[in-house]
Structure formats: C-alpha cells, structure tokens
Amino acid sequence: MTQRDRALGAFYGLALGDALGMPTQSFSRAEIAARFGRITTLESAPADQPVAPNMAKGSITDDTEQAILVAQLLIENQGCIPAALLAQRLIDWEAGMQAKGSQDLLGPSTKRAISLILAGHSPVEAGRYGTTNGAAMRITPVGIVSDIAHPECFIQAVVQACQVTHNTSLGIASAAAVAAVVSSGINGKKLEHALNAGTEMAYIAEHHGHWVAGARIGPRLRWARDASAHCNNDNVGDLLYDVIGTSVASQESVVAAFALAQRVASGQMNSVDAVCMAASIGGDTDTIAAVLGAMLGACEGLDAWPTALIEQVRDVNHLQLEPLVEALLALRNA
Fold first, then answer.
1. Residue 205 pLDDT > 80, yes or no?
2. What's the pTM?
3. What distances in angstroms separate CA 313 from CA 14, 64, 285, 307, one per listed residue?
4. Would the pLDDT of 216 be above 90?
5. pLDDT of residue 276
6. 42-98, pLDDT tens digit by residue?
7. Contact, 138 vs 178, CB < 8 A?
8. In the structure, what pLDDT confidence band is assigned to residue 124 with cuts at 50, 70 and 90?
C-alpha cells in the first residue's frame, strides 16, 4: 500500500465511522439494541434522534466536518494552524450549522473556548478547560501531515491543533495518541506497532497544556488494550460500555476506540465489525467509530472499507477527500 492509500483509508475511515454512528449517537446501548439491533450498515436517523434528527443514511456529522476544516487550514498555512484562524473557522462553522437548523453544533469544550475567545480572551488561554474528545475527533489530518518519525515536530503540530479548544493534559494526550496511530500507519507500520506508538505518545503529550485532574490517558490506554485483548466476545460490549465508558470524556471515548482497535490487532475481529460495534455501543458512538475508523484505515488502507459504503458516504455528503489527502501528503514529504 502507498501512503496515499493509507491516508485515504484513514480519512474515509473517519467519515464512514462517523456516518455509521450518526443515527445512534447519544442513545443508550439498550435503546440502540431495541431500535436497530446491531448496526451492520449505514442507517437513517430517527425523528427523535437528539443530535441528528431525520438525517439521511450515510450522513456525516461534526467529526468529519471539523476534520476537513482542520485539513483545509493545514493546507492553506503550509502545515500550520494559526490559533485565531482556527477559532474563527469554528465560529463560522457553527453559525453555518445553526443557519441550516442543525442540532449538530460545537461540543462542550469547544463551545466554552469559543465563548471565551468572543469575550476577549486569547486563543491559547481559551482552551485551558477542554478535556473532552473534540480535539481527538478532528486530529486525523495532523496525523497525515505530520510524521511521527520526527517526534518533536509531531508534538508541536498536535499541540497547535489542540490549544484553541483543548489546551489541557487530557485533551492533548488523547489527540496525540490518535494522531500517532494515524501517522504510524501512514509510515507503513502494522496496527499493533501503531497502537503502541499512540499509547507511548499519550505519555509524552500529557506534559503539554494545562494540567487537569482526571485519569491519565496513557495508563488507561495500556489497561484498556490489555483488558480488551483478554476479554471474550460475549463480554466485550460490557467492558466498553460499563467499565471503560462511552461518553464525550476523552478518557472514555478515545480509550474505547483503542480497546476496539486492539481486538482487531489481536485478530479477534475485523475492522468493519469493530467500527460497527463502536456505532452500536451507545453514548458518543459517532466519535468512537470515527476515531477508530481513522486509526484502522491508516494501518490497513482504503481496502479495509467496503467500496459500496464508502461510495454512499461520498455521494450523500459530496465528499472529495482525495485532493485534501494529496495536499497533506505533499506537505508531509516536503
């Protein structure tokens, strides 16, 4: 596989996971089971979907849209993300969503940060309370453009992408872990190696940003990966939902994505089944599935995903990720 194939696998894997989890986001595990059984393909959102009511099957959410926003900023600014410009683009993005009548708006950490920016605080200070998964969900383009083989530059790129909204030890560590898996995959590393790199990067990245209380990302990744690898198939759902957790907290949703990726690395399930489980598990399903799809796609390439599903997501959302990926890779290899 080429770098291009792996990068497309990551970005389209993000979009596919996002779309699979779109109709189930914010529902409980029991409610998803009653309404959908188990997600095995793209589904439409019901009218009472709390975030995406009546959205068509295959529709993406903020996870993919904000990742595209970050990719565009990276390309426009030669691999950099100016803090003030990111803040303004996020403000503009939410305004556009509100104009369309969408309920899919900025997450709690991002919304608080933007409010502080509008009140006159600096972009760097605005992100000091961001601990949720918003930075991790949109970090995939940073993993594509930044090579983990140059760790200092890699960390700087992650911090730059996080500081406006998630300038905390938890926000940066979780985003760095995801970006490290993506970057390692694009370098041709197998999934187990990439997950190890992501786990180690969480330990390094937690020293950046404002320290906040909470279970550390690195140790939780190690524990969850081990627990998942040794969990039987009948109990893995309980592990994810009851013990790891599936909320917007980065210590839960990002860790849950790593736990499912470990099962793929251990040969206990394939990538499509893993992403479908993420979409079925309850809670922040679209983000868990999107992050998981990006990590798996980076290591396994575009062929990891069923062509028909990728084409449906591409057509429904008018996605053209190829030019973005090619431009990001050009910057990576410059």
1. yes
2. 0.96
3. 11, 11, 17, 10
4. yes
5. 98
6. 999 999 999 889 999 999 999 999 999 999 999 999 999 988 888 888 888 888 877
7. no
8. confident
Cβ–Cβ < 8 Å for 299, 305: no
Q: Which has the closest alpha carbon to 62: 70, 169, 54?
A: 70
Helix boundaries (H) for 77-139: 83-99, 108-118, 123-126, 134-137
Q: Identify whether the C-beta of residue 180 lies closer than 8 Å to the C-beta of residue 205.
A: no
DSSP tag of 304 = G
DSSP letter string, 237-254: HHIIIIII--SSBHHHHH
> For residues 215 and 108, which has the higher predicted lDDT (pLDDT)?
215
Q: Quick one: which of 310, 290, 221, 288 has its CA closest to 27? A: 288
DSSP string, 151-220: HHHHHHHHHHHHTTT--BHHHHHHHHHHHHHHHHHHTT--HHHHHHHHHHHHHHHTTSSB---S--HHHH
8 Å CB contact between 271 and 239: no
| DSSP reduced 3-state for 148 | coil
Owner of token pair 């959410």: 61
Q: What is the mean pLDDT of the chain?
A: 94
Per the CB < 8 A criterion, the answer to whether 176 and 133 are in contact is no
Q: DSSP class of residue 302? A: G
